[in-house]
Specification:
By secondary structure, this protein is of the alpha/beta class. The protein folds into 2 domains: 270 residues, 3-Layer(aba) Sandwich (Aminopeptidase), CATH 3.40.630.10; 111 residues, Alpha-Beta Plaits (2-Layer Sandwich), CATH 3.30.70. 36% of the residues lie in helices and 24% in strands. The protein has 12 helices and 16 strands. It has an 8-stranded mixed sheet, sandwiched between helices. The protein has a 4-stranded antiparallel sheet with strand order 10-12-8-13, with helices on one face. Strands 7-14 form a two-stranded antiparallel sheet. Helix 8 packs antiparallel against helix 9. The longest helix has 22 residues. The structure holds nickel (II) ion. The site of nickel (II) ion has 5 residues, from loops.
């Protein structure tokens, strides 16, 4: 099929995608509470005569039946939820969040708009589509257990016989018109831990009568740094970060306890298990040695995003054609952020990629989850064209 057609259509629907994105940005909803967002998506799809299914309470799946009969089923996925962040973006008057304390600071508004743009393109091309296209608007990417996991657990996509699934994330490190991807591991397993360091409170001037949880917590944070440097195989990627530490009330009181929240990023389950054990043994030994106590919780998050070779070849092929070879970046290594797209990849072949969305002129180079996170809306020109094109790529017989 003529590639330029996808580009032209993405351009024709660009204004629409911008409006959709700004509407969603203005009315963000938290994970698993995306009711209005879902209704909005359903209305948009209805205008295109695309029926929807509701395998979960929020989110939906649009179904495009191609006119050419075939068993082929291609799924395209967007996530739709926002974050509990007070946004600070420089677009205040235009489309600032009207839902207090909630904001689309991870670009899921853009992912949704982009997939709706692809829906427009595909609706136009129905006569040329072989088989079925599923437009997966998934809730709850930002929050465990993960909307992707819940959707896979319903068995809905398995029943539909999905052959391949593609997804993307806006990517501030590249400009619109560029993408980045790699075969194999692309994004890490994000696991979480919560540690309570329990001491004995007292007067700050009488530390000998207390057990100081702040001192214990400080030692723990220090020792946790040795896990990646001393226990993880240096050829492997891993991160242990304490992201929140809280305890104490005043300068002259030794508190009863201190809470530490953190994340572990790895690629292999065994490495995650090893780190979990090391974290707990450090907490145990430090608190024991100081006469304190602890509680320890470890939540396994999402698996690692691992791209299927042939689906990645499809993407690279399409992208090189649409964007030009030099705009398709093959990453040297994975990144340590996590994504619940990984759950789909445990069930189906699939590829996840990064869509360049950062530019100085739109002040959109802030990292994911930054209160000023923004996307350069020109990314829809590339993103919608790419997603729509992928539907026409071959599925290997053995795949
Ligand atoms: Ni995200």
């Amino acid at each position: 099929m003529e590639r330029t057609k996808f580009k032209e259509k993405a351009k024709a629907y660009h204004g629409e995608m911008v409006n959709i994105r700004r509407h969603l940005h203005r009315y963000p909803e938290l994970s698993y509470q995306e009711y209005e967002t879902t209704d909005f998506i359903i209305d948009q799809l209805a205008e295109l005569d695309i029926p929807v299914d509701h395998p979960l309470e929020t989110g939906c799946v649009g179904i495009i039946e191609g006119k050419k009969s075939s068993e082929k089923v291609v799924a395209l996925r967007a996530d739709i939820d926002a974050l509990p962040i007070i946004e600070e973006g420089n677009y205040k008057d235009e489309f600032f969040s009207e839902n207090e304390g909630i904001a689309h600071c991870c670009g899921h508004d853009a992912h949704t708009a982009n997939l709706l743009g692809a829906a427009h393109i595909l609706a136009d091309l129905r006569d040329e589509i072989e088989g079925t296209v599923l437009l997966v608007f998934q809730p709850g990417e930002e929050k465990l257990p993960g909307g992707g996991r819940l959707l896979c657990e319903t068995g809905y996509l398995q029943e539909k016989g999905v052959d391949v699934i593609y997804g993307l994330h806006s990517y501030p490190e590249l400009q619109p018109g560029q993408i980045a991807v790699k075969k194999g591991p692309l994004m890490a397993r994000p696991d979480e831990f919560k540690i309570e360091v329990i001491g004995k409170g007292g007067h700050a001037a009488s530390p000998h009568q207390a057990v100081d949880p702040i001192v214990m917590a400080s030692q723990i944070v220090g020792q946790l740094q040795t896990i990646v440097s001393r226990n993880v195989n240096p050829t492997e990627h891993a991160v242990v970060t304490v992201g929140k530490i809280s305890g104490g009330a005043a300068h002259n009181i030794i508190p009863e306890k201190v809470e530490l929240l953190g994340t572990v990023r790895t690629f292999a389950q065994e490495t995650a298990d090893m780190i979990k054990n090391r974290v707990e043994s450090i907490v145990k030994s430090v608190t024991e040695a100081s006469g304190g106590g602890y509680t320890f919780e470890f939540d396994y998050g999402y698996p690692a995003v691992t791209n299927t070779d042939w689906a990645t070849d499809n993407l690279v092929h399409v992208a090189q054609n649409l964007l030009g070879e030099k705009h398709v970046h093959i990453l040297d290594g994975p990144i340590m952020a996590g994504e619940d797209f990984a759950f789909y990849q445990q069930e189906f072949p699939g590829t996840f990629f990064f869509l360049g969305s950062g530019s100085k002129k739109t002040d959109s180079t802030y990292s994911w989850h930054h209160p000023k996170y923004n996307v350069d809306e020109d990314c829809f020109l590339t993103g919608a064209a790419l997603m729509a094109s992928l539907v026409f790529e071959p599925i290997p017989k053995s795949g």
